[in-house]
Fold this sequence. Notes:
Elements: H1 14-27, H2 31-39, E1 41-50, E2 56-66, H3 67-73, H4 77-90, E3 98-108, H5 123-129, E4 135-140, H6 146-157, E5 161-164, H7 166-169, H8 176-186, E6 189-194, H9 204-214, E7 217-222, E8 237-238, H10 244-257, H11 262-274, H12 279-291, H13 298-310, H14 312-316, H15 320-328, H16 332-342
Parallel strand pairs: 2-3, 4-5, 4-6, 6-7, 7-8
Antiparallel strand pairs: 1-2
Amino acid sequence: MGLAVNESAIPQLVGEVVATLADIFRHQRQREILELIESAHARFDETNYDNWNGGTSTWALRLEVPVQIFASVEPRLEAIEKEIGGKLSYLNRQYANDNFGEVTVTPVSRDVMPVGQRMAPTDIEIHRLWPEGRFRLFLSHVSTHRITVSQLKEALSLRGVAAFVAHEDIEPSLEWQHEIELALRSMHGLAALITPDFHPSRWTDHEVGWALGRGVLVVPVRLGTDPYGLMGKIQGVRGALERPKALAESLTRTLLTNSQTFGEMRRAVVNSFAAATSNQMALALGRLLAETITEVTDEEKASLWQACTDNAHVAGAVGVSEAIYSKFGEPPAKATADAVDDDIPF
């Protein structure tokens, strides 16, 4: 016997419900579950219908995820499904005649997904577009400013940010729109470089809309004009493309002080500091660490300490190691050695 026909809007609202779940896990910095939700093709299945009191439906949330994502979470699958279900239960209050029941996560190969269904970029695609260990920032801009935007990209690179600039970062042999979509699907945030010719562009509003739809941070950059539309309510930064270093500094500090991007940006700064390839890079990152970052994990602290002794660019950047030790303390071995040296008479 089939289920009764129900006019509930829940199946049509699956995108809204999943976006809310993603926001919850994003703010709680649960990256593993957030990645799973963002990569999933989601749907609701009605598992029960009761005619009492105007009709009440029970729904199961089905999340189909790429095999690579499923393989990484499979050892904790039951706990993850239960955790998602727990958050989902809070949304019952919004829908009086609907109850959310189980949550199931199942693997599906990219090769059998119907055209148009959502799939996360593969690791190979991500590594082709983005340097590993950096914050992935999509720069939405008008191509007429490509020279100054390229200078901004270089200044951001010194500060742990990999900026995607379409005219530079797309290989000529690859279909350009597909690559832009891959970047939009795998970015950590988007900076909208709002010049007076930004809005008339055919593509910039589309890129911003994609970011807003994914729920990633959009930073409006006022470059002669103010944000508009859905961006209008977002606090942005002011700057000038002719001053790329100052603008890069403002953008990275914004990413480090926003709760949505702080964790990813902090990791990018620490990773880039450890692998600094110039004294200039070590100075820029050291300043961010000393002035903006207020907390690091024990593992990150050890990485900073090691960079101060093992990375020649960090060790050779005047004042950087001292600033790191002043902010985060000295490694135990160094502190012990300093204490011993203090006892040696001269």
